[in-house]
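Researcher: We're reviewing a set of sequences before deciding which ones to prioritize for further study. For each one, I'd like a predicted 3D structure that I can look through quickly. This is ABTB2/3 histone-like domain-containing protein. If possible, include the structure in token form so it fits the rest of the review sheet.
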Amino acid sequence: MSCISAALSALSLYNMSTEDDKFSRGKSVRCGLIFNVGKFFRWMVDGRIAVRIHEHAAIYLAACIESLFREVYARVLRSALLERDNGIPKFTVETLDQAVNTDAEIWGSLQPWQHLICGKNASGEL
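Model: Here's the predicted structure for ABTB2/3 histone-like domain-containing protein, in token form for your review sheet.
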């Protein structure tokens, strides 16, 4: 639900931007996103996922992925697995992997066969 609401808010911000913004600010800024909408659009075009790709599709996808990343990042920071370096959380690939593998909701969502394993973590536990 958070990914969908983030995508809808980004699309709303983009559609509400003025005509003057079209040439002075990029799509990502007008949508309030950090991820680059243009790179998502280019990936969709290069990947030939459809004959025609609307710019709104790239905005929607970028907002969804950014929201998913923020959720995963927040869960890694809340996990007890995170090491501290002078009081500052040390975000590494290993801590990300461990946090995702122990969280059934995130781990199942990031698998290509997600419909077969929902509700289980990397160890197969419910």
